[in-house]
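Please annotate the following for my students:
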Amino acid sequence: MSFFIADKDAIKRGLTTDIYFLRTKEILEKKGVSKNVVAEFTASSLPHGYKWAIFAGLESVLELLEGIPIDVYALKEGTLFRNKDLRGVPVPVVVIQGKYENFVVYETPILGFTCQGSGIATKAARVRIAAGDLPVLSFGVRRMHPAISPFIDRNAYIGGCDGVSSILGGEAIGKPAVGTMPHALIIVMGEEEAWESFDEIVSKDIPRIALIDTYGDEKFESIKAAQIIRDLKSVRLDTPGSRRGNFASIVKEVRWELDLRGFKGVEIFVSGGLDENSIPPLKEAGASGFGVGTSIANAPTIDFAMDIVEVEGKPAAKRGKFGGRKRVLRCEGCLNYLVIPYGEDSPATCPLCGGGLKEVMEPVLRKGKRVGEKKSASEIRDYVLKQLDILKNNLQENI
């Protein structure tokens, strides 16, 4: 196990599962028990009382399950969902139908893909709402295991980030990685020489963004950078929490001094310990873009669980769960859900707002073969943003 990570083959072979699933498979096989089941993935609650979350990780699930003789139904990747419907029934995000022994060892990795992927996408979406139309870049891969940097960046982008910092993350979303310059470059070369060298050497299609808080006062360093670099797009403030005081006040001060000297076109990009709560005051102070790291990369996971709800066509569920296969309907007006027993007719309209109800659980694997076309990260992101617009424009629910 190089770097103590599991490779794709190990995951596909079920070696990353919890051991009791392997023992379950052994027992079923030796006793000759082979039954068709319906299993669903739901979240009993959302982190910190969130009212909604973004479903992600499906592409990894499909790659894992492809070729196994089972049927899989799921929400589209990027779907905004509630953990409970209007009547308090848990909302399934993935449903697997088939012989239980065929997928028993994959419950653990499926949960890993969806719990973490959805958590990252959800946090990114919350940050997206807080930032409005201003750019947000995902800077958090350094806070997590490097093996999953593409997974982190892809889900951050799906959730609403405009760009990602890691090279493989850029490949995962089909876009070049983005970034400015580290403090280390300035410490090694000296501030002015580092700015000038960046401007001289780095490709001209890369925006000129000068990191200005390595040594001196942010406003004076910003003015100096604007005077030295002709086509300066932004100055970047990454002041550590131990030195920054009121970060919004520093941003206001820098904005004032730049404007006063005729540098109104130079933007202010901020990073360092940001989340959906700290961004609004910085935006109001004059920040023009945000680099968000740890809060997205280390986002709280969505606590999905898998439960068998039907065995050989008959409802079956442990206590605290709702048995039987279900239909999942969503109102396209208010994005609330209605979950009803499979085969039951749905109401004509949403009981909350009167909007139209749409079936949102779709087949994604039939007998192990993919159904439908694979969506790009950009297409999924566009889908997420359209749903966030509904939240902002129709419900004023925001975050």
About this structure: The chain has two domains: 2-118+300-395, 179-296. Residues 107-131 form the longest helix (25 residues). The two ends are 41 Å apart (CA to CA).
